[in-house]
Specification:
This protein has 251 residues and is of the alpha/beta class. The protein is built from 9 helices and 7 strands. The chain folds into 2 domains: 103 residues, 2-Layer Sandwich (Nucleotidyltransferase, domain 5), CATH 3.30.420.40; 136 residues, no CATH class.
Length: 251
């Protein structure tokens, strides 16, 4: 087995290849791209495995390896104490240590979804990020009114059909109005984005029968059901049907 330790950056990939005997047999640095990544990996004799640490580019490289039939292991940086606690830090050294840790069986693999499962997880994450953004914008809008002595309890301050009434309550300062109008505009965009993402999630949910089962549990609802399915998704999701009805089991 050849262990390909890889230290990944947006601009550069550092490779170190360790063989079964623990000897360094190959080393290279290339510009970050799918083509360069695959070219180097395929230059290493099979059997081979690529080892990287969790990071921004991890999911992207995993997709590439999955599509092209290469084995990639994503590791938990917090568990790689030999790398993290080392006083001598260097990208090429880190890559070699990753390979040596993999050879010795001292790494903890992190599971990542691929394909549509990955995109569905990203979609639900985007939905919740957008919801937090809506809450932030609503708080900012109310804060502007309160800072100018205007009480604004309730929800009407956010609604288009009531905005003219709320405009009249503010001091008619041109700069203040620019700020408030900009916040209202951002809120409208965020709410439209929420509807778009939710529609896409409902369409995607048709490919995940476990969501319907989770949604049938009182108090769960579609958003929670879709989030649970997206985040807790594992390589083996089983749907078991018994006489009393369908059961959902994660393994």
């Amino acid at each position: 087995m050849n262990y390909i330790g890889t230290d990944i950056h947006l601009g550069t990939l550092y490779f170190k290849v360790i063989n079964e005997a623990g000897k360094l047999v190959k080393s290279e640095r290339v510009a970050t791209s799918a083509t360069n990544f695959l070219k180097f990996i395929r230059s290493v004799t099979r059997p081979r495995v690529v080892i990287i640490e969790e990071g921004t580019l991890a999911a992207w490289l995993l997709e590439i390896c999955t599509i092209h039939g290469e084995k990639l292991v994503i590791t938990d940086p917090k568990r790689n104490l030999w790398i993290g606690s080392s006083g001598k830090k260097d990208d090429s050294i880190d890559a070699e240590k990753l390979a040596q840790l993999a050879r010795g069986g001292y790494i903890k693999e992190i599971y990542h979804p691929v394909g549509q499962n990955r995109r569905f997880r990203e979609l639900m994450t985007a939905y919740h990020d957008n919801c937090r953004n809506i809450t932030r914008l609503k708080n900012k809008i109310k804060a502007r009114f309160l800072q100018n002595g205007v009480q604004c309890s309730g929800e009407t301050v956010y609604l288009k059909e009531h905005r003219e009434k709320w405009r009249q309550k503010l001091p008619q300062d041109p700069l203040l109005m620019v700020i408030v109008e900009a916040l209202w505009s951002q809120l409208d965009q965020a709410q439209q984005a929420e509807e778009t993402i939710l529609a896409a999630a409902k369409e995607q949910a048709k490919q995940h029968p476990e969501i319907k089962l989770l949604d049938s549990i009182p108090g769960v609802g579609f958003i929670n059901a879709a989030t649970i399915a997206a985040i807790l998704e594992t390589p083996t999701v089983l749907l078991i049907r018994e006489r009393s009805g369908p059961m959902l089991v994660w393994q």
